[in-house]
Amino acid sequence: MSLPELPNTRNPRELRKALLRLRMEMHRQQIRVESGQMLEPLQRLRGVGGSLHDGLGIKHAPLWGIGAVVAMGFLTGKGVRSGNLSRLVRLGASLLPLVKLYLQGGRRP
Asked: For the chain, which ranges sit under pLDDT 50?
């Protein structure tokens, strides 16, 4: 962020040009700051996605998530009675820690 140089002359035209350059630089910096503030939630959301991936400790967690959603769609699709859904959810919730331990066990020496 280098500021434009001020002229060493008393020429009003050159002074107006310098003033205009200073104003333009001020507007550029203001736009940079405000755009950074507008993009902050997006950057925070990207950080949350990365920390969620690291926090689970599962390699390729998004693919596992998509696979789980697809499996739930097939298992709980049209024609499945509503009683089976709660049983399937309980089964999935109880098996999730076991799958996580299994996947982490492959990485330990």
From this structure: 109
Alpha carbon distance 98, 90 (integer Å):
14
Asked whether the CA dihedral 54, 60, 63, 68 is positive or negative, the reply is negative
Look up the pTM and report it: 0.40
Q: 84-99 in b/e burial notation, b at 16+ Cβ within 10 A?
A: eeeeeeeeeeeeeeee
**Token output for 34:** 């405000």
Residue identified by tokens 């950057």 is: 43
- 4-36 in b/e burial notation, b at 16+ Cβ within 10 A? eeeeeeeeeeeeeeeeeeeeeeeeeeeeeeeee
Are the C-beta atoms of residues 32 and 41 closer than 8 Å to each other? no
